[in-house]
Amino acid sequence: MTVFSRAAGSLAVALTLAAAPALAASGPPPGFTLSDDADLAFTSPDGATRLEQYMKEGEDFDIKWQVWARRGGEMRELKPEQGYPAGFRFTADSRWLVRIQKTGSGEQDLFLYHLENGAFVSATKQSLGDLAWTYFRSRPDTGKMKLDYHISANLIGAENGYRWLGVDRTNNRYLLISLSGETDKHPKNVAVKGLADWKCRYDLETGNFDVPKMFAKDNAEALKWKIKR
């Protein structure tokens, strides 16, 4: 074999390694410890995936939380890292996963993951909560409403498979989301004013939002929510 052949072979191997996908991390980095709170561990309905939450305390009470999905002998992080632990809901077929994430005092977001090639990965570029708010603001009946704090997106009814909506649990197609928030500007005789439990539906097959007719009346009331002094 010539020197040129050996060099070409080495270059080919190097390019192959560079193009290969990075191996999955084996677990959380140093400093993160597994929470012993049983309520922070979740297992998929098929029993194949277990979610574990790890915490790391930093200076000035800075706390970081990571979520890792254990599936077989492999662990993968469900990003993003957050400052609070999270709740989770799987669809009945164990293929979709929603993260219910506290982000601040009275504030909450949602993240969506999908099972691909044996591992859960982010299903949307933006958070599911942000997508729901974008849909809310795109509608002519809600787009002008401005909210200032306690901005919250919540997953509702999933535990019962939406049977109360007449949706078959085995369908695994829809997620029902409620949005809430409060506004700074309101009359003096009003203590709190804003949005309370405005509902929309997310279609996992199409990636689109809609509002079923059965929610029209309640959503109209949600836009008028206030607590008088």
Radius of gyration of CA atoms, rounded to a whole number: 22 Å
Q: Structural class, from secondary structure content?
A: alpha+beta
Strand content: 35-45%
Distance between the termini: 89 Å
Number of strands: 14
Overall spatial form: globular
Number of helix segments? 3
Fraction of residues in helix: 10-25%
> Which regions are unreliable across 5 or more consecutive residues at pLDDT < 50?
1-24
Element-level helix/strand string: HEEEEEEEEEHEEEEHE
Write down the overall mean pLDDT. 85
Summarize the main sheet. 5 strands, antiparallel
Characterization of this structure:
This protein is globular. It contains three helices and 14 strands. The protein is of the alpha+beta class. Helices cover about 15% and strands about 40% of the residues. Strands 1, 2, 3, 4 and 5 form a five-stranded antiparallel sheet that branches. Strands 10, 11, 12, 13 and 14 form a five-stranded antiparallel sheet that branches. Strands 6-7-8-9 form a four-stranded antiparallel sheet. Residues about 1-25 have low confidence and may be disordered. The chain has helices spanning about 5-20, 130-140, 215-220; strands at about 35, 40-45, 50-55, 65-70, 75-80, 85-90, 95-105, 105-115, 120, 150-155, 175-180, 190-205, 210, 225-229.
